[in-house]
Write a structure and sequence with these properties.
The complex is a heterodimer of chains A (about 270) and B (about 300). Chain A is mostly helical and about 270 residues long. Helices cover about 75% and strands about 0% of the residues of chain A. Chain A has one domain: MetI-like (MetI-like fold), CATH 1.10.3720. Chain B folds into 2 domains: about 10-50, no CATH class; about 70-300, MetI-like (MetI-like fold), CATH 1.10.3720.10. Chain B contains 13 helices and 2 strands, in the order H-H-E-E-H-H-H-H-H-H-H-H-H-H-H. The chains are: A mainly alpha (about 270), B mainly alpha (about 300).
């Protein structure tokens, strides 16, 4: 029995290592070929170079796309996190009749295919005589990001001790000051995590940005447009490698904030909601 | 004389004080309102448009017809794309769940310390660019890609293999990798929740480890497996990026035709009808799947 357990542990452990390699290795081909001194993305490697990075950094259109992505990302992060705070506060503090279906509706953008959300928004915007651009992209991104902000913040609001608020109230603080002096500092790590994660989602999002954007693209759409030209592929790889590293850094930072002083937070809340 | 009538704001505040549910909804209203404005109203608008006919650039005959739905359900091309999308999403869901289960099981039952490190390690790719994760497979499977050029450099093959990319299998392979990380967490959470004493009880009552797995672990993990399946199946049916990058014309999916109708095809009402038809088909399939899985597990216990 015990030997069976050990054997099972070894087999499963090996499987886990292979699985993690499977998750990461395909993506690592992007940085690998971005240092390759050849216009062709193929083996054998021709030697190391940084020239694709230099070419990429010198590209003016890329700078504009980056600025667009930053504008949209920061706007999205701020608005969806504020909405997430209000929503998470409402559903964790009050017992609302019909809460489950209402939260279900807010979470719905997580499962409806993005292309359908994008096309529906496109119809409404153009029928109302609106125009496409960074604002419409941000609207689409906020819709996609609010469920994530809600989930991150709900676990934070649930994790914190209600009696602290009651104590503040008993000591004579009104609701407004109780929120700023007791609730807010306690949920601050969740707020920072929500800002970082929603920024990352917006920064990497392609479908909304592609269909709701004008000719002034965000970074992922800029990258998509470059894919048509084989000559530009190595530069795209270099750009992709930079984006990957930035995303990983931001997400690890978010995780750090989310886990801080919050050991009882659920682990599965990120994705299953 | 000194009793002033309470001003409306105070009356509202007093009213809300007595009705906490109302206060809760007031607090929730901006979030709910935004989702309503950016999702519910647009989808209603899409529903209205699906009964129109396109008569020219951005001009429509609004008299109302079912013609778009009749076409969406009867034209051979759409049927092929619907079936292919459902097949690709089904295979992807099956592959991701089957591959993720042993890993979730390992983390839940065998990792004693540093569980969090494993969880972060397997969820981290989820937050990186979807476009780049898909693009990586174009680099790997392409005509001059990593696999072909690697095998040629090693002298295993004389010329590039052409069956690697631009077909439905390439789409399944790419989607399986891109969505892998979504399957692990729900399954892990449901396994982690299993009361360990239930497992001991099964052993004490004489179940072999295999029977214990079939009769205890699997039914209790079912909610996680279901959640993972739904979270992967629905978005992959409507995926656009992957079929566009690695699918080729043989691997096109329903999202490609939706995109076409809204751009070069320039038939928005038809695109709206196809979108809503595919949403309805998927919702019905998911409901039937969830219902039958629940019955199946209900009968077992």
């Amino acid at each position: 029995m015990n030997r069976n357990m050990k054997l099972a542990a070894r087999i499963l452990g090996t499987y886990a290592v292979i699985y993690v390699a499977y998750l990461y290795l395909p993506v690592l081909f992007l940085p690998l070929f971005s240092f390759n001194d050849s216009i062709y993305i193929s083996f054998p490697l021709r030697g190391w170079t940084l020239k694709w990075y230099q070419i990429m950094l010198a590209n003016e259109a890329l700078h504009r796309a980056l600025m667009n992505s930053l504008k949209v990302g920061i706007t999205t992060a701020l608005i969806s996190t504020v909405l997430g705070i209000l929503g998470a506060r409402a559903v964790t503090r009050y017992r609302l009749p019909g809460q489950k279906p209402v939260v279900g509706v807010i979470m719905l953008p997580l499962v409806v295919p993005e292309i359908i959300l994008a096309m529906a928004l496109l119809i409404l915007i153009l029928r109302l005589g609106g125009s496409l651009g960074l604002v419409s992209i941000a609207a689409g991104h906020i819709l996609v990001c609010v469920p994530f902000a809600m989930v991150v913040l709900m676990s934070r609001f649930e994790g914190f001790d209600r009696s602290l608020e009651e104590a503040s109230h008993d000591l004579g603080e009104n609701a407004w000051w109780t929120f700023w002096r007791v609730t807010f500092p306690n949920v601050l790590p969740g707020i920072v995590a929500s800002l970082l994660l929603t920024f990352t989602i917006s920064f990497d999002e392609f479908i909304m940005a592609f269909f709701l954007g004008s000719t002034n693209p965000t970074l992922p759409v800029f990258m998509w447009n470059q894919l048509r030209f084989p000559k530009l592929l190595p530069g795209v790889l270099a750009l992709g490698a930079c984006i990957l590293i930035a995303s990983v850094f931001i997400v690890l930072l978010a995780e750090w904030f989310r886990r801080r002083n919050n050991s009882d937070a659920q682990t599965g809340d990120m994705i299953i909601g | 004389m000194n009793r002033r009538p309470p001003n409306p704001l105070e009356r509202l505040r007093a009213h809300l004080g007595r009705r906490p549910a109302l206060r809760g909804y007031l607090l929730l209203s901006p979030t709910l309102g935004l989702v309503g404005a950016l999702m519910c109203i647009p989808i209603l608008a899409m529903g209205v448009m699906s009964f129109w006919q396109q008569t020219g650039h951005m001009s429509f005959d609004m008299s109302g017809t079912l013609q778009n739905y009749v076409e969406a359900l009867t034209r051979d091309m759409y049927r092929v794309l619907f079936l292919r999308s459902l097949g690709i999403a089904g295979l992807t869901t099956l592959a991701t769940v089957v591959m993720a289960f042993p890993l979730a099981y390992f983390i839940a039952f065998y990792v004693k310390r540093h569980k969090m490190v494993w969880i972060i390690l397997v969820t981290l790719p989820f937050w990186t660019s979807y476009l780049l994760r898909v693009f990586a497979w174009k680099v790997i499977l392409g005509y001059n890609g990593a696999v072909n050029s690697g095998l040629m450099a090693l002298g295993v093959i004389g010329e590039p293999l052409t069956f690697l990319m631009y077909n439905p299998i390439a789409v399944v392979i790419t989607l399986t990798h891109a969505w892998a990380t979504v399957a692990i967490l729900p399954i892990y959470v449901s396994l982690e929740k299993i009361d360990r004493s239930v497992l001991e009880a099964a052993t004490d009552l004489g179940d072999s480890p295999f029977m214990r797995f079939i009769r205890v672990v699997l039914p209790l993990a079912l909610p996680g497996i279901l959640a993972a399946s739904v979270l992967i199946f629905i978005p992959t049916v409507g995926d656009y990026v992957t079929p566009s990058l690695v699918g080729g014309s043989d691997g096109y999916m329903i999202a490609n035709v939706i995109q076409f109708q809204f751009s070069r095809g320039s038939n928005w009402p038809s695109g709206a009808a196809i979108s809503l038809t595919s949403m309805t088909i998927v919702a019905v399939l998911v409901a039937v799947f969830a219902w039958s899985a629940r019955r199946l597990s209900g009968r077992k216990s």
